[in-house]
Specification:
The structure is a single chain. Strand 5 and strand 6 form a beta hairpin. The strands form 4 sheets. Strands 11-12-10-13-14-9-15 form a 7-stranded parallel sheet, sandwiched between helices. A 6-stranded parallel sheet has the order 16-21-20-17-19-18, with helices on both faces. It has a 5-stranded mixed barrel with strand order 2-3-4-6-5. The radius of gyration is 29 Å and the shape is globular. Helices cover 39% and strands 18% of the residues.
């Protein structure tokens, strides 16, 4: 976060080219400062053992444990037909549980000699499942204790730091590299103003870096973390406060609807009344649009709360005032879906310039990357002349060729799929900065909204429109209770028999490549047998269902690799009720609206995130009939994955689920990607637990930027901001 010349020194110089290369490629660490800010994930105490019982699947872990027993087996394989293959199975224990390690082939000799019963060691590897038991295949290890081997205590004191690591770089190697560069921490320049540090009793930065990497007591760790959390929260909030300040000074054209214009005509056409929530949020948006500074607003809404309707009313208000409005969608399927639903909602009001169009009508144009040349030329012409009041499209809208007559409003759907850069590139297409409305159906806890979308004001739609049906959700444990899965397919048949439709969602598309072979076509060796089966695929599942449990039903597939026209045709058939069951990837996750679809079966549900499952589930129960969502998994009952699915089945509250999701994922996954797709700047700040720090830091940052916008008296803070925002991001922040 904070780099000065000593901390800017390349790791190549400090550690040598070989180690530096591995750190750059695997951990994105390039300088001494980067490495000093690679903090331990947790700490082991000598003599205290970790919980093997709680290991997460598919993650790279480091454990300290004791060898309980080791057994060498021989077996026959394609490579060693005479039964000369060797497999070493080592069982380790930590008091809470047992874990199996497995070594194959020539890799058995060293551990066979070293991993004797009673030996204590640190083991690092990726957790996989084999024969329904967790294991580490070919883990790296370092012996601990009194047997003359190098002792970790020599570089870690009484507490052993366990670092976020990778297959190529174990935690203890990272620890040794950090010990080499730790003296440079003395030269770290402090980003916090002295007064702020003194008021809050925070440790100076050089001391905090020493304490986090070489703590002598648990109090040292607490001190260091409290200080480093403030750094992260404060520097990020200063960046956001500066962005808000720049935005607030930009000019914009005030956009007000006319009393008897397009918006009024549209409202008269609506077959229902707006919910109180929709009215309240619309008022916030219209008030913003009426000012001469660009609106920057985030609209959060539960799945099905009517965000699209609120956004469309804002777009119509802008068209009324003589401007154009554009909606940016993350995928072609979603752009086409929005175009279809907007033109349906508007009816003749969307037929501007056409025979039969209403007097106040405008033209609604779709622009995607895969359109034919003639259609694209016409769309670009309609944008440039102003003929098209409303434009809906994908990132194809950002291309240089695309020119608008008078761009007044940009609506970005599903913001978490777009970086700051993309929304800014689109905003740059207005003669003056257009107003910006960002929509998301992924509910975001307040602190995350303040951290990730801190440059935007927030509106929340949490009321579902009348007529939306409840969705019942159940976990289907396919491995424990196969008859539950049979019953799931019966339920799908029952829904279809009642005149409804169903989705089946799979994590993967599926290829013609033999799943049992590797990329070069070789069969998997015994070394690979520890790898669990690949996720279920749309093409395979659709074939099996059509020939088996759903024989006789009309089954179609939909996935991202299909041609856009084919995708659109499949969606149209499904929407028209000509298909009974749609087997799809997460391409249907957002925006797809088929009220007659009442059932959804999600295969390998444990392979999806909590928010994603909630999004997918929102595709059913959109009409008057009740919805059903079945989460199919082969994970054992006690596993964290099953608990996660249980949480999804237990509540329909997206905000509650987003908290669960965030608690289970690393912060960086959420924040880094949402900010700009770059590496997250958050390492110790937990956006759920540290609400108080984030709120305080936002307040302090806002006051500081108001008093000293250029941060002239704070060189340390300026340096920290430079490290947080590379040049490219800084340009975007400047551009607003």
């Amino acid at each position: 976060m904070d780099l000065v010349p000593a901390l800017r020194e390349p790791l190549k110089k400090a550690l040598g080219p070989a180690t530096a290369k591995v750190m750059a490629e695997n951990l994105d660490l390039h300088t001494v400062g980067d490495l000093l800010h690679h903090y331990p994930r947790r700490y082991e105490e000598r003599g205290q053992l970790t919980h093997l019982a709680d290991l997460p699947m598919d993650e790279h872990v480091t454990v300290v444990a004791q060898v309980a027993d080791a057994r060498l087996h021989t077996f026959a394989s394609p490579r060693t037909p005479r039964g000369k293959g060797q497999r070493l199975e080592v069982t380790i224990t930590d008091g809470s549980g047992r874990l199996q390690l497995v070594f194959f082939g020539n890799g058995v000799h060293k551990p066979l000699k070293e991993l004797l019963p009673g030996t204590r060691a640190m083991f690092a590897g990726k957790v996989s499942m084999f024969n329904r038991r967790l294991q580490l295949a070919h883990p790296a290890y370092q012996l601990l204790g009194e047997d003359g081997e190098e002792d970790v205590e020599s570089w870690a004191g009484a507490l052993i730091p366990i670092y976020p690591a990778t297959t190529k770089l174990e935690s203890w190697k990272i620890g040794k590299a950090i010990q080499t560069v730790l003296p440079s921490a003395q030269e770290a320049l402090d980003p916090l103003p002295d007064s702020l540090r003194a008021d809050r009793g925070l440790t100076p930065l050089p001391e905090a870096l020493l304490k986090i990497h070489r703590p002598h007591t648990k109090a040292d760790i607490e001190d260091a973390r409290a200080r480093l959390k403030w750094d992260e929260a404060f520097v990020l909030q200063v960046a956001l406060a500066r962005r808000r300040r720049v935005d607030a000074q930009l000019p914009a054209v005030a956009r007000k609807p006319t009393p008897d214009g397009l918006l009024a005509a549209f409202d008269d056409r609506l077959p229902f009344t707006l919910t109180d929530g929709q009215r309240k949020v619309s008022k916030e948006i219209f008030d913003d649009l009426a000012t001469e500074h660009p609106m920057h607003r985030l609209l959060q809404g539960e799945v099905g709360s009517g965000k699209t309707l609120v956004a469309l009313r804002a777009m119509l208000a802008v068209v009324d005032s003589g401007g154009q409005a554009v909606m940016l969608a993350p995928t072609e399927v979603l752009a086409q879906q929005h175009h279809r639903s907007v033109t349906e909602m508007m009816g003749e009001l969307a037929e501007g310039g056409m025979l039969g169009g209403a007097d106040k009508a405008t033209k609604v144009v779709l622009l995607t990357g895969s359109m034919g040349a003639a259609a694209r030329r016409q769309a670009l012409l309609d944008l440039a002349t102003g003929e098209a009041g409303i434009v809906i499209g994908t990132h194809a809208l950002i291309e240089d060729k695309v020119q608008f007559h008078d761009l007044g409003l940009v609506v970005v759907d599903e913001q978490h799929r777009f970086g700051v850069e993309q929304r800014d590139a689109l905003r740059g297409k207005g003669k003056q900065p257009p107003h910006l409305l960002v929509m998301t159906a992924t509910p975001i806890p307040r602190t995350v909204a303040m951290t990730v979308f801190g440059d935007l004001e927030t509106s929340v739609l949490d009321q579902l429109p009348a007529g939306r049906s409840p969705i019942a959700s159940h976990v289907v444990p396919a491995a424990d209770k196969p008859h539950f899965l049979e019953r799931a397919w019966e339920r799908v048949r029952e829904e279809v028999a009642a005149g409804h439709q169903a989705y089946v969602v799979c994590p993967r598309i599926g290829d013609s490549v033999d799943e049992g072979a590797d990329a070069k076509g070789k069969k998997k060796s015994p070394e690979d047998e520890a790898e669990k089966r690949p996720p279920l695929a749309v093409l395979d599942v659709a074939e099996q269902l059509a020939a088996g449990p759903l024989l006789g039903l009309r089954v179609e597939v939909l996935h991202g690799r299909m041609q856009p026209d084919d995708k659109d045709a499949v969606m149209r058939r499904f929407a028209a009720g000509e298909t009974d069951v749609l087997v799809a990837t997460t391409v249907i996750e957002v925006g797809v609206n088929v009220p007659n679809a009442t059932a959804m079966v999600i295969m390998d549900a444990d392979r999806f995130g909590v928010s994603q499952l909630h999004q997918l589930r929102g595709r059913v129960g959109r009409g008057s009939a009740a919805g059903l969502c079945l989460l199919v998994t082969e994970m054992p009952e006690a596993s964290p994955a099953r608990q996660r699915l249980g949480a999804v089945a237990a509540t329909l509250d997206g905000f509650e689920l987003s908290r669960i999701d965030l608690e289970q994922r690393r912060e960086g996954d959420v924040l880094g990607q949402a900010q700009s797709g770059a590496r997250s700047s958050l390492r110790v700040l937990a956006v759920i637990d540290d609400e108080e720090i984030i709120t305080e830091a936002r307040k302090e940052a806002t006051e500081l930027v108001a008093a000293d916008p250029e941060l002239e008296g704070l060189p340390g803070l300026r340096t920290a901001l430079d490290a947080l925002l590379d040049e490219e991001r800084e340009q975007y922040l400047e551009k607003g």
